[in-house]
Amino acid sequence: MSKLANYASRITPHLSHFTGDVSPRLLPTVFALCAAFLLGGVLVLFFGERPFEVYGLLWQSVFGSLDDFSYVLFNATPLIFTGLAVMVGFKGGLFNIGCEGQLYLAGFAAAWVGFHLKWGGSWFIIPACLVSATLAGGLWGAIPGTLKARYGVHEVINTIMLNFIAIALTNYLVTEVYKAPDQMIPHTPLIHEAAQLPRIAAFTSMLPPSNPLNITLFIALGLIGLTQFLLTHTKWGYEIRFVGNAPEVATYAGIDARRVTIWTMALSGAVAGFAGVWEVMGYRYRFLDNFSPGFGFTGIAVALLGRNHPYGVLFAAFLFGALNKGALDIEILTSVPRELFLIIQGVLILLLVCAEGFSKNRGAE
Length: 365
Hints:
The protein is mostly helical. It has a domain at about 75-295. The chain has helices spanning about 1-20, 25-45, 50-65, 65-90, 100-115, 120-150, 155-175, 215-235, 235-245, 245-250, 255-285, 295-305, 310-335, 340-365. The protein is globular, with a radius of gyration of 22 Å.
């Protein structure tokens, strides 16, 4: 045991070089993961299945082939965006529950530019779509930030209400104004071919052409590194963290806390908007009414499980993507319904919050 402790003490500084202050606080996460999957195994028994066999199928579903693993990455990509968006808000002391509305408006903005802009090649149309999506998500995030900074209105209430407005607005636009003709499910026309982000399968024969994984994955990975750099190596990131931890002290130190609040929510909304880009430019190549199964809300769980750290968000998004992918296969091959994995996700977050609160209380003592 002493050798193991000595080894752990030697590698911890190296881990902290990559994860900052996350590694010493991983115990609640590990506990929550183990307890959630243990409870899931107990529930599997109630369906007459063997837990080890079901979890073996889950492993096979995720890592069985490159095609399977690519589907996991595909499912994880929008959760990386929304998890990072929620994380940025948390760093600034803000709770952004409005990622759902922000990604809807950003997706529609990208689609609108994509099917209206007919001239110029991909070098022009793709950046135009990305900029429009970023601006739409950022401006929609700046609204609750402004209300919070100027009038003290709580951002949770603002973002919840703005979700309803954004979803209703895009629903009206896609069903009454820009609906493609002769379609049962409302959606816009296809975006221009030059606006479509290519799939990974187009560059390699290792994936079948039907695999939907696209280059928005690399945008997500780039945003992870960019967010980490912004928060830890820039003055702006320092101000976000300072205001998030001690707004009164930040104001006393000369930081304009109201300005930082507005820009933090705008940045959070812009990052969330890339989940709409994933849908419109990388997957369906059109805006589909009510396309999101709750990416914005799942992003809250991803940020919590990821300990509000960019690399933690990557891990949590991958875990949720794996559970979503495996749930479909297990439902087909066994009598276990896919809803079991939704239960595991919910229990995981509840246990994580409880473990975090317990550890803080013990620390206070």
